[in-house]
Amino acid sequence: MQRMSKRSHITGGEACEVEIVDDIAVGQALSEMPAPGVRKAVVDIHDALADETRLRIVLALSGRELCVCDLANICGITSSGVSHQLRLLRDRDLVTYRRDGKRAVYSLSDDHVRVMLSIAIEHAEERAR
Amino acid sequence: MQRMSKRSHITGGEACEVEIVDDIAVGQALSEMPAPGVRKAVVDIHDALADETRLRIVLALSGRELCVCDLANICGITSSGVSHQLRLLRDRDLVTYRRDGKRAVYSLSDDHVRVMLSIAIEHAEERAR
DNA sequence: TGAACGTTTGCTCATACGTTGCATCGTACA
DNA sequence: TGTACGATGCAACGTATGAGCAAACGTTCA
């Protein structure tokens, strides 16, 4: 998961013991930089997918909805474990669920994740060659 | 970053103290699951972007190429720090560089990252509303 | 109403892990 | 040859993280 960096990442471009080479480029980069809140959210999304178990969960949910115990079987861990990971995915708005009797059926929140994953997989396979 | 999970994530669907509800769905999910190697690579990609500093670097490189010291200024850290992070990004094939005299100029390896980021940002902004 | 089931959640614990800084080395330029 | 830039090795620190247990919760069914 993400770790707090001690450095205060101030948004403005303050001096930093190193000379700037390309003022224009640096200026552009800084002005195009998304707001801290957005960056945080983006980090959190990637963080959520940077774990084998959670990746499995999300990949499994890419094609269908599944209940917690089936996800547990797919991932090879206890349902408690799955539930913990699902909460994290829920908190980051990557998955949703509906109740079906005593069962909770999970699915992806929207297509963003699906697309991101397919690009990542494409990248991985392309580089593997 | 990713941490090794003690569990042995065996690919096949072995028994796991929980009953399977939807055999067909579980079977499909397992058969569609990418190979372990690919999953690892995908985890690594997301892991690389799950850090504020590296995200900044990649976002900055989204629009232009930049040398190490300019990146240091943008991120507000030492060039040594940037260099460390750049090595990680290089190892995961997310960035490349060319030499320009005594300077190393970095850029994104391909469009995959750019697209992934824009989707993640879109997702984040959409959910923020 | 009670019991079984499925799921969630709170805790705790040990530890691996990532980030950062410093110092050094290699290379390029002038 | 001396100065800039960047890469890299190494060490240290704090701490985020995943596992596992047990208990709480909500739902269904007898």
Task: Briefly say what this structure is.
2 copies of one chain form a homodimer. Chain A is mostly helical and 129 residues long. The first copy, chain A, has helices at residues 23-32, 36-49, 52-61, 68-75, 79-91, 111-128, and strands spanning 66-67, 95-100, 103-108.
Architecture overview:
Two copies of one chain form a homodimer. In chain A, 57% of the residues lie in helices and 11% in strands. Chain A contains six helices and three strands. Residues 1-16 of chain A have low confidence and may be disordered. The longest helix of chain A has 18 residues, at 111-128. In chain A, helix 4 packs across helix 5. Chain A has helices at 23-32, 36-49, 52-61, 68-75, 79-91, 111-128; strands at residues 66-67, 95-100, 103-108. In chain A, a hairpin with a 2-residue loop joins strand 2 and strand 3. A three-stranded antiparallel beta sheet of chain A has the order 1-3-2. With 129 residues, chain A is mainly alpha-helical. Chain A folds into two domains: 5-33, no CATH class; 53-128, Orthogonal Bundle (Arc Repressor Mutant, subunit A). Chains A and B meet through helix 1, helix 2, helix 3, strand 1 and helix 4 of A and helix 1, helix 2, helix 3, strand 1 and helix 4 of B. Chain A binds a DNA duplex (30 and 30 nucleotides) through helix 5.
